[in-house]
Amino acid sequence: MIIYQNRLRRSFEDYSDNLDLLYFNESLQRKKTAFFCHSHKDKDLVLGLRTIFHQEGIELYIDWTDQTMPDTPNKETAIKLQKRIEKADIFFYLVTENSMKSTWCPWEIGYADAIHQDIYVIPTTTDGNSVFGNEYLKLYKTIQTYGVSDYQISFPDERHSIILNDSNLQESRNG
User: Does pTM top 0.70 for this prediction?
Assistant: First the structure.
């Protein structure tokens, strides 16, 4: 099932600015980091996913929280983003109407693909009928909801998936 944006907003409501310090301190001990590709217009969705991934032990790099980024995007921005994508263990792309209109998101996923980064697409919907995304995004693994509180990673070959629940990984093969 595709992730409803309202579900992410509810996760965001659980988010507190007081958690920033907790995220920073725990990030020193984390084993997985992810570059998080998204539109800055989707801040509430981003913070909702940040909460979910934090519970799974994954630290998200969110560029607008990086104080070393230039105020106005420029060549330095692109270089810093490239280094962050290279440094990350995995790459997440939150697909929304806003990210589909972004000039940076296609560039970021293109760069991640070119360096053979491990890419996960997170398609979303607002109404349950239409899903945001382009055809080329079907080349990558997707993260979708599975039941009420679990998530499923589906692979492009559509025969293999992993269920994430309560921080345990369960592998399942379809067919």
Answer: yes
